[in-house]
Specification:
With 669 residues, the protein is α+β, with helices and mostly antiparallel strands. The strands form 8 sheets. Strands 11, 29, 30, 31, 32 and 33 form a 6-stranded mixed β-sheet that branches. Strands 1-10-9-6-7 form a 5-stranded antiparallel β-sheet, covered by helices on one side. The protein has a 5-stranded antiparallel β-sheet with strand order 2-3-4-5-8, with helices on one face. The radius of gyration is 39 Å and the shape is flat.
């Protein structure tokens, strides 16, 4: 389609950005955007760059119908506008986005006071929807329709009809020639209006499709199927060589003998038979063998040259593709940085994931090209992701107590925390009193004989410790004396995976039965169990914490997504609304424990294998817990993490591995 495009803008006051953008010239589809924004200069510049990048990738480089490509791009642009407006990078935006397909269909959408007009057969008609009152700050409607030869389109970031009538618009495009934009700008300036404009004049009808043009114009080598890259490389390498050969002398020599083809074939046959005879002749076979070896060597050399030239062509093509991929990765990292500044962490993480996939593609290329650049880019992506997700790496965490120094073969399993900085640490059979204040460890008597400890908690109301052991038994430690306690249930204690206490009750989590059993502490014994869960799904339950409501950590792994986790909240046995928001991708994958020290405290999730602690806010009345940060114990001296504890004021976090207890000051981080 033959098209004449001209743009312009009035003089912009301080703090105002007027930018016309036209993309895709000479490539079939045309994309244009007019931006009128007010705010900080750096914010407006970032908005222009981000919008241009979205249009380039989502409209021009994407595949599919033009309307669908533009609609997808507008969704991204709406997210950008929301982020920039919320962050106060810009205060007000008026913009128009349009796509003119090579087949002759125009799609237009607008934000704010921007408008578009078509002048056809001397009549000016508005093609954008007019909204009364304050215009919205999002792209809401798309106007679509076919264009015709001699159509004129006038699109502006301000309402032209406040300064120019429809009849004046029609007369301007018919008589102003190439000065349409300047003529309208002069009228707007006289009215002290601020705007940028684009004028498009359709000089010719729609062109044939791209596929048809290529099929008609392309040589045979360009129409080879995509599954034959080596053939194309061979043709590209030697096509020019054979085209430059002059066969006229050969044709001249052969022309007189066309009438006697039998004579030529006879001579060839005679020569070949003579050569075979020389191979067996005692006197001439040496010469024949040398000729055969020389011919074989020459044939091998020619084949080797052809292969090397083909490989060289492919290597050069691969080098160019990898160089473009490295440029795209750098662009993605910069885009993710801009999205972070706009407050869109989810989009920034998605862009970094795409950049990481591309960097790994560069790393895996067979020719080992750009490997050092790919390694550097992967490091930058990792650093940027941790900056966005507020990941804190503790290279030398502070050791609060070294249990391995007291007993070298200790394999700690868990700890029971107390607000005064003292702990009871237990392995399978033994108990240890640990003081983080004095960094001392005291070995206590064994809890029992023949039974192994599964879990332990503090029953503060009765100043005792309760331990769940193998053999479906519960041992209570009061006054330094362990005692096996019974329940009034004739069937005995329920088999469970986790034990917690609250007030005068003991709760046992039974994942097999998808239930929580509640036992009341009586004089020297416990009452019969009561089923706590009413309607919560406890499938895959791993751990729980109680601060009034009960929060249960569940394993929701499915095929293709191992290690996934979520949390169920129960109050009086009824399921309550609970949502974890703003989490980075896969932030809770692999966590094994959940902890909350007080009703208004934060949530702490322990990832034992990866030495991580994920922190989210308390859920409050609405049931929404927001992501805060992550701690990673990035030290080879730290083993597999076993348990964690946080004091009621949320000022210090304690983490236990098999040999040591570590302390992390939360207020300083």
């Amino acid at each position: 389609m033959k098209l004449e495009v001209s743009t312009g803008q009035t003089k912009a006051p301080a703090g105002t950005l007027l930018v016309p953008v036209v993309l895709g010239e000479g490539k079939g589809d045309r994309v244009f955007m007019l931006i009128h924004s007010e705010g900080r200069s750096e914010g407006s510049d970032n908005l222009r760059d981000e919008c241009t990048s979205v249009l380039q990738h989502s409209v021009l480089e994407a595949k599919g119908e033009g309307y669908e490509r533009l609609e997808s791009a507008l969704k991204e642009l709406n997210g950008l506008l929301k982020g920039f407006l919320l962050s106060s990078a810009v205060r007000e935006v008026h913009a128009v986005v349009g796509l003119l397909e090579s087949g002759g269909v125009l799609h237009v959408s607008h934000v704010g006071r921007a408008e578009g007009y078509i002048i056809r057969e001397g009549v000016a008609t508005q093609i954008t929807e007019y909204s009364r009152g304050k215009p919205p700050s999002v792209f809401m409607h798309i106007a679509s329709g076919p264009v015709q030869e001699r159509d004129h389109f006038l699109i502006s970031t301000q309402r032209l009809l406040r300064s120019i009538t429809p009849a004046q618009l029609s007369q301007t495009v018919q008589h102003a020639g190439d000065g349409v934009v300047q003529n309208i700008i002069s009228k707007l300036s006289a009215e002290k209006e601020v705007a940028c404009l684009i004028h498009m004049h359709v000089l010719g009808g729609p062109e044939p499709t791209q596929e048809l043009r290529e099929a008609k114009a392309a040589p045979l080598g360009r129409l080879l199927p995509r599954s034959r890259p080596k053939s194309r490389s061979f043709a590209a390498a030697f096509g020019g060589f054979f085209r430059n050969l002059d066969f006229s002398g050969i044709i001249t020599m052969l022309r007189p003998k066309r009438s006697k083809p039998q004579t030529i074939f006879s001579k060839i046959k005679e020569k070949f038979q003579g050569f075979l005879g020389d191979l067996y002749d005692p006197e001439r076979k040496r010469r024949a063998h040398l000729l055969l070896l020389a011919g074989s060597a020459a044939l091998f050399l020619v084949i080797w040259m052809l292969v090397q030239l083909s490989l060289s062509s492919q290597r050069n093509q691969t080098r160019g593709e990898l160089a473009d991929l490295v440029k795209q990765i750098n662009t993605d990292i910069q885009t993710a940085d801009n999205r972070q500044l706009a407050g869109d962490s989810d989009s920034a993480n998605a862009i970094l994931a795409r950049a990481e996939d591309r960097a790994r593609q560069v790393m895996s290329n067979e020719n080992r090209l750009f490997r050092s650049e790919a390694l550097e880019l992967l490091d930058r992506i990792k650093s940027k992701r941790e900056e966005i997700n507020r990941v804190i790496r503790l290279v030398t965490p502070r050791v609060a107590a070294n249990l391995g120094a007291k007993k070298t073969d200790i394999l700690a399993q868990g700890l029971i925390g107390q607000p005064n900085g003292e702990f009871i640490v237990y392995d399978r059979q033994n108990l240890y009193r640990v003081s983080s204040n004095t960094n001392t460890v005291e070995i206590l008597d064994k809890l029992g004989v023949g039974e192994l400890i599964l879990d332990g908690v503090s029953l503060d109301r009765f100043q005792s410790k309760v331990f769940l052991t193998t053999g479906n038994s519960v041992i209570e430690l009061a006054g330094g004396q362990p005692q096996t306690v019974k329940t009034e249930d004739p069937a005995g204690w329920v088999t469970g995976a986790d034990l917690k206490t609250y007030l005068r009750y003991v709760y046992i989590l039974s994942p097999e039965r998808k239930q929580i059993y509640k036992y009341e502490h009586l004089a020297g014994k416990y009452g019969p169990p009561a089923e706590y869960n009413v309607n919560g799904d406890l499938t895959g339950a791993i751990d729980m914490t109680i601060t009034g409501p009960i929060y249960i950590l569940r394993d929701t792994s499915v095929d293709g997504k191992q290690g996934a986790r979520d949390v169920v909240k129960l109050l009086h046995g009824e399921k309550q609304s609970f949502n974890l928001r703003n989490l980075p991708p896969d932030a809770l994958n692999g966590v094994t424990k959940i902890f909350k020290s007080a009703p208004n405290g934060n949530f702490y999730f322990l990832d034992s294998e990866n030495k991580r602690i994920v922190v989210t806010t308390g859920d409050g009345d609405l049931g929404d817990s927001l992501y805060l940060k992550q701690y990673i114990l990035d030290s080879e001296q730290v083993g597999k993490l076993k348990d964690l504890y946080v004091d009621p004021e949320d000022t210090r976090l304690y983490v236990l591995d098999e040999k040591k207890l570590y302390a992390i000051d939360l207020q300083n981080r």
